[in-house]
Amino acid sequence: MTTHFYYFNSVPSGSSIYAIKITDQEIMKTFTVISSILATAAAHGIVTSPTARAPGDAFKAACGAQMFSNVQSDPDGNMQQLEQMISSQKDFNAAECNLSLCKGLQFADNQASVQAFTAGQVVPMTVQIKAPHTGDANVSVVNTQTNSVIGTPMIEWPVYASNSASIPENNTNFQITMPDVGSQCATAGNCVVQWWWDSRSADQTYMSCVDFTM
């Protein structure tokens, strides 16, 4: 193990000169922390209304303690950030977590937040975007049993959250009109309204899911 000594001698006359001993291991730990902070400083987005899925005990059991801690502290982070954690988590269950559906967030943790929508209902939505990255986005109804979109998107943006201009108001405050999906979405947990934003230039994907029945 290599040890580095750093001397600080720019001190007032008569003061002591201090040396700080830092090992390679400590340097690597510091670098890891800084890298983690920089990663979370990337673009972030999440649905703030209606209430979207959030992490809980079921998510922790399925996706692992490290991923739970990350999403709990950074709920609007991207998918790729979570995928990088998989190899280091012995308690990650790929089948139960199912990251590609709602970032692995579980219905069992969110049963108190199920919305009741009707066909043709106009639903206002609010999205928080902390930092933009140009991409495309849409809001769709997703069948959680098959992880597939039902019908066509209710709204979509070919250019979304561009970092070359101010974010348009309709990227963060907009309305959707619910399609008639009562035959597929009568049971809580079977369907979600999914907001999905993908920036290929940044290789970052964001999603939020709102559970509902019809």
From TrEMBL:
InterPro entries xrefs: Cellulose/chitin-bd_N (IPR004302), Starch-active_LPMO (IPR052282)
Pfam families attached to this UniProt entry: LPMO_10 (PF03067)
Ranges of residues in domain Chitin-binding type-4: 44-212
Protein keywords: Copper, Disulfide bond, Glycoprotein, Metal-binding
Lineage top rank: taxon: Eukaryota
GO molecular function: metal ion binding
Names of the cofactor(s): Cu(2+)
Keyword Transport on entry: no
Gene3D superfamilies listed in its UniProt record: 2.70.50.70
Family of the protein in this entry: Belongs to the polysaccharide monooxygenase AA13 family.
Protein name: Chitin-binding type-4 domain-containing protein
Organism: Gnomoniopsis smithogilvyi
